[in-house]
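Q&A log
Question type: sequence-to-structure
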Amino acid sequence: MEYEPTIGIETHAQLLTKSKMFCRCATLSSLQQDDSSQGAIAPNSLVCPVCLGMPGALPVINGTAVEQVIMAGLALNCQIPEISRFDRKNYHYPDLVKGYQISQLHLPLCRDGWVDIEVNGLGQRIGIHDVHLEEDTGKLMHIHGHSLIDYNRSGIALMEIVTEADLTSVAGAREYVLKLRRILRYLGVSSGNMEEGAMRFEANISLHPAGSATRGKRVEVKNLNSFKALLRSLEYEIERQSTLLREGRAVLRETRGWNETNEVTFSQRSKEMADDYRYFPEPDLPPLVIARECVERIRAQLPELPDIRYRRIVDEYQLSSYDARLLTDERTVADYFEQAAAEGRSRGLSPKTVSNWITGELFRLLHARDADIGKNPVSPKELAELIALVETGAVTGTTGKRVLEAMFDSGRSARDIVEQEGLTQISDAQQLSAVVDQVLSANPDAVSQFRAGKETVLRFLVGQVMRATRGKANPELVTTLLQERLKGS
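Response status: OK
Response body:
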């Protein structure tokens, strides 16, 4: 018998606020973004009586965090209720310093939303049950048989986005989480950096016979800290549960963990009886009244979202779907492209030409130097100036690539580099003729092969001339001069 999965995903995303959710302590992300902050941040140095849960310490709601969650909810097509409330979620774990977490259960900030994804060319709408706000826990580290706790993360504003159980494949789960991260990064409310723990997942998965409307027992897999962990755990659970069902054994309703090394899930605790977190309204915080004027003000601040920007860039710049996807995957890249395209338009450059340089040479340099496009030293205007030098024949394409690398490393303009290093393209026929004659004299075998009918050797000879001129020779003129000499013209 074939079985089909039903999947729901809970995403925890740290918000990019300067202070924690309920106190004035600085957040890790705010210090890491501050260039004046040097060196590593010492463990347990970003703490106070509030985020350490000291008796008598009172929390105060971070208004920026509330607005960021509302913005995310609006981008995910959610309803924003007029009343929201914080609750205490009681459970005991070493990294939960107070013995409870301030979260939202009954009256979240956002609910009843949706996001559209595309899987294998087919559209699918994934329901968003709610988006709520809570505080993060501390961080446990297990080193040489000892367990250490760092509470710097404790109390950081955390947004939880909960889907309906609408996902039906691992491929769909992948498309959903990638799109969700793209939206959050466009909004600027979360970095989405998995390696920094800024985004984590929990997955709920059950299997049922193909075509059946009755869902099976739900298994929760917790603490998935990467896209790979999420997708591999889903693949493993589908295989594990399928095997159990085919053998006539029951799938237990339980919470499982993920072993990254062995790539298997393992049982943590049974959920046959519902977890009793003893939720009750947070007594130290009043309900939030969300004025409609506030919601509309935040709605007006929404940026152009990824799907809309993708479609506009395809239409406005006449780019392929592939190019537009590359350029709109990150908001900073899309911003850079549109600025460079505007600068290029005034210089007679096509958007396609600008796109090719960004997705080709610029991306290569950014990757090689592990740099972010928003902080790279080549501005959109300077890139357009370089491309114009290549397109007008002032420098060759090969030289242009070298100049871009020099711009990236030195911060100098393309024109300065070309002038100071004498990289202007050689288009003087008399000057190039001397170089062509030298190359032909040094390669008699290639000359013989060409005259014997092996015309592909011409590319080799062109390359030798380009090497002799350090890439400055006009390649079209070089080709013409070589053909004239080889054919005895």
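Response note: The chain has a mean pLDDT of 91.
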